[in-house]
Amino acid sequence: MAIDTRGETAGKPGKPTSDKKAKRTSPALFYRQVVAELRKVIWPRRNDLISYTLVVLVFVVIMVGLVFGIDTLLGKAVLWLFGGS
Questions:
Q1: Which contacts qualify for 43-47: CB closer than 8 Å, 24 or more apart?
Q2: DSSP classification of residue 82
Q3: Nearest Cα to 3, choosing from 19, 24, 23, 17?
Q4: Tens of pLDDT along 29-61?
């Protein structure tokens, strides 16, 4: 999606485009904004969290097995090809 600058030149990322300095956020305001954003989060229930964790663990175990198998096969193939012991 393109951003409409309406004829203004684009500045460097993270820097204000005007000459005046950007106003800093106070730590108290930052904390209030963080708390407000965290209240918008839909936290998973315990059952959901357990099922998500199990899915991730099963996937990781499968991937570890797959990588281990491919590594073992390639290692044996290299030893066979170059005459190792």
A1: none
A2: H
A3: 17
A4: 999 999 999 999 999 999 999 999 999 999 999
Instruction: Tell me the three-class secondary structure of 17-45, residue by residue.
Output: CCCCCCCCCCHHHHHHHHHHHHHHCCCCC
User: In this structure, what DSSP letter does residue 10 have?
Assistant: P
What is the pLDDT at residue 11? 60
**Cβ of 30: how many Cβ atoms within 10 Å?**
11
Place of tokens 């990781």: 60
Between CA 78 and CA 72 the distance in angstroms is 10
- 58's tokens: 């099963």
Q: Rounded to a whole number, what is the largest CA-CA distance in the chain?
A: 71
pLDDT tens digits for range 8-35: 555 666 665 556 677 888 999 999 999 9
* Structure tokens belonging to residue 66: 């797959």
